[in-house]
């Protein structure tokens, strides 16, 4: 829900700014708009006389939705940030404890020391063992296959955000949706939401003033 809300805010704000920028680059004239006087300033032709009634109505609607959603997300900040941290924490731990094992096994089996060192460094920086002790009996560390009974690893679930060091060291190939934006949400959710709200208000105010 947090991801969808932020995407909507981004898309709506971008649409408003794109329209505003397009109007600045394509000013009207007395031929296209009969209400535009011949002696109108260039900025007036790009803003004041460059929006139809339908465009003004649509802008007011979109700006209202941006402000409403921003306020709603700001009120739900505590719940959203906790859910984001809990979910991404689990995904990261599942990656460094389970998914990365196949890559480590292949690196050890193929005697690729540098690759093994990098993978183990990523794991050691980001991993959070359930009981606080490393599993030295992992067959992947010896380049061996898991036993027929399987190698069970219980991934903990905690509501903890990643540190900046963990973010910079972690490579998440099976989590393509975790982009820089979501990393910022994870680490700085309160700041991000406040900035998003301020940005949307700034964009709305600027466009509303010109229209």
TrEMBL record:
<dbReference type="InterPro" id="IPR008081">
    <property type="entry name" value="Cytoplasmic_FMR1-int"/>
</dbReference>
<protein>
    <submittedName>
        <fullName>Cytoplasmic FMR1-interacting protein 1 homolog</fullName>
    </submittedName>
</protein>
<dbReference type="GO" id="GO:0030833">
    <property type="term" value="P:regulation of actin filament polymerization"/>
</dbReference>
<dbReference type="Pfam" id="PF05994">
    <property type="entry name" value="FragX_IP"/>
</dbReference>
<dbReference type="GO" id="GO:0031267">
    <property type="term" value="F:small GTPase binding"/>
</dbReference>
